Amino acid sequence: MSDTLVFIPAWNEEGNLPAVIDGLRATIPDADVLVVDDGSTDRTADVAREHGAVVHSLGSNRGLRVGIAAGYRWALDHSYAYCGRVDADGQHPADELARLLALVRAGDCDVAVGSRFVSGDGYAPYRYRPSGPRRFGTAVLRRAMKLALGRPFGDATSGLYAVNAAALPLLAETFTSGAPEVEALLRVSNAGLTLVEVPVTMAPRASGESKLRGSKAIKLVLTVAGTLVAAQFVRSRRR
User: pTM of the prediction?
Assistant: First the structure.
């Protein structure tokens, strides 16, 4: 068994999964690949197995906050030293996850998060240009993240993660808010683990439509902002 697990939360992603799994297996061949099937009604589970992934089925559609925690729980219960997460829609290139895992393996951090909105060597500023509404939402989230974490954080809803074993118990418990990625950042930060945001390039969704559009996207921004404000309130009461 490998010391590294990469998991993919998936709901009705039979069209995108083959390329995602094949990319991971080609780029990070020593990692085990797990698909957390969130009650898909298409061939997501069958396609995952056909491409060499292990499938953990949730039985019914329980939502991303359960699916993400289930992936980390699997890594914790099976004693993996390192764990990566990518989304099933093809937006997270395997070579970018490999960079994040290398940082964690080297002991540079406990948790590395891939970001579209920070720059660095080979990653130009403003390389990702969201639409007007998304720019507004991103600006709101950045301000809320700085308030909650006490530091800037550009891409709070990124699903591209690499973590070590110290972070697994924190992330394996089901998330309680509608913004699991943000809640994950808060858990890691509050526990005093080392968290870094790493510039990456993300691809457009390979096929199909995002499940977060229109009113759902607006609701997400409001949920995230509310989560962060509540977290800051709790922190201030503890001081």
Answer: 0.85
